[in-house]
Amino acid sequence: MMENSNPPPVILAEGLTKTYQMGHVIVSALCGVSLQIQPGEMVSIMGPSGSGKSTLMNILGCLDRPTEGKYVLDGKLVSNLSDDQLAAIRNLKVGFIFQSFNLLTRASALANVELPMRYAGAKNRRARARQALESVGLADRMNHRPSELSGGQQQRVAIARALINNPAILMADEPTGNLDSKSGKEIMSLLLSLNQERKTTVIIVTHDPNIAAQTQRVIRLRDGLLEEAQ
Q1: What's the gap between Cα 58 and its chain centre?
Q2: Which residues contact 209 (CB under 8 A, 6 or more apart)?
Q3: Residue 208's CB: how many other CB atoms inside 10 A?
Q4: What is the rounded CA–CA span in Å between residue 47 and residue 207?
Q5: Rounded Cα–Cα distance for residues 34 and 31 (Å)
Q6: How far apart are CA 102 and CA 36, in angstroms?
Q7: Which of 3, 15, 146, 168 could form a disulfide with 74 if both were Cys (CB 3.0 to 4.6 A apart)?
Q8: In this structure, what DSSP letter does residue 51 have?
Q9: Is the dihedral angle over the CA atoms 113, 189, 95, 164 positive or is it negative?
Q10: pLDDT tens digits along 86-119
């Protein structure tokens, strides 16, 4: 009898709920969302404002914990871990790219990319950071601060930083939202190449149907529920 050779999903979520207490009112941001994402997939998460997509991204990225439900990330059950345990997983398993870049304004591009490795106690930080910046086309901008870089260049620094610990997943929250159309296309091209050439699992939260159309699958949320997965 042949064994199933399919790899386990890198993300397995079952019945995720998230509720918030706002005064005397309980708000349900997620209402029992279940989904799987396979290693090497590139998927987008879409939905109107208030649909729960940011809440889902925060839980999948270990920035928040579900009220109820099961969440397995890269084979590890993370639903009920402590904040310190979540922080450790977040630093090593997930790379984040934000719309606002979230770079340290007084630090060089090189120092920004080194930061996750400092938290992880990694060796050869400077050499690895240089290599990461070279891989995103910033070999000549390593010593520049964010204020000396264009929006597209700042996002490239953020991508290099997100990839520096070789995470299982790259999560991008509106990664082209603050960029002009040319820079946005360049960033999407870079994300596509990372997915296709390095087989990095990429999850993008976006409002832009043109961005979603470039991913392999679209996950749609509405009112905290999984509406559609294409």
Answers
A1: 9
A2: 46
A3: 16
A4: 7
A5: 10
A6: 28
A7: 168
A8: S
A9: negative
A10: 888 888 889 999 888 999 999 999 999 998 888 7
C-alpha closest to that of 171 among 118, 71, 93, 82 = 93
DSSP 192: H
Question: Is the entire prediction scored with pTM above 0.85?
Answer: yes
Which pair of tokens denotes residue 132? 């990461």
Specify which residues 201 forms β-bridges with.
Answer: 169
Q: How far is CA 23 from CA 26, 27, 83, 213, in A?
A: 8, 10, 25, 40
Determine contact, residues 45/53, Cβ cutoff 8 Å. yes
Q: Are 24 and 177 in contact (CB under 8 A)?
A: no
pLDDT of residue 123: 80
Half-sphere exposure of 116 (CA within 13 A, CB side): 28
String of b and e for 131-169 (b: at least 16 CB within 10 Å)? Answer: ebbebbebeebbebbbeebebbbbbbbbbbbbbbbebbb
- Domain boundaries defined on the chain: 40-65+82-229
For the stretch 166-177, pLDDT in tens is: 888 999 999 998
